Amino acid sequence: MAGHDEQAEHTKAEHTHGDNCGHDTMQHGDHVDYLHDGHRHSEHEDHYDECQ
Fold first, then answer.
1. Residue 20, C-beta contacts closer than 8 angstroms, at least 6 positions apart
2. Which of 19, 40, 41, 49: CA 20 to 30 A from 5?
3. Region Disordered: which residues (predicted)?
């Protein structure tokens, strides 16, 4: 099972992923991850995790 590797290069304050953020989405269980520069960002508390 793929896991979270590290905190993403940006915080929610710098860029919030959402319906109109410009990034593609991918359903991941009960939530949506965002495809960002060749990797996935998964929301986690006050930041995003980089996922493989």
1. none
2. 19
3. 1-52
- Burial grade of 19 (CB within 10 A; 0-12, 13-18, 19 or more): exposed
Copy the structure tokens of residue 10: 């940006």
The structure tokens listed for 33 are 């991850």
Instruction: Write down the pLDDT at residue 1.
Output: 40
* N residues, the chain: 52
pTM: 0.70
Per-residue b or e along 20-29, where b marks 16 or more CB atoms closer than 10 Å to that residue's CB:
eeebeeeeee
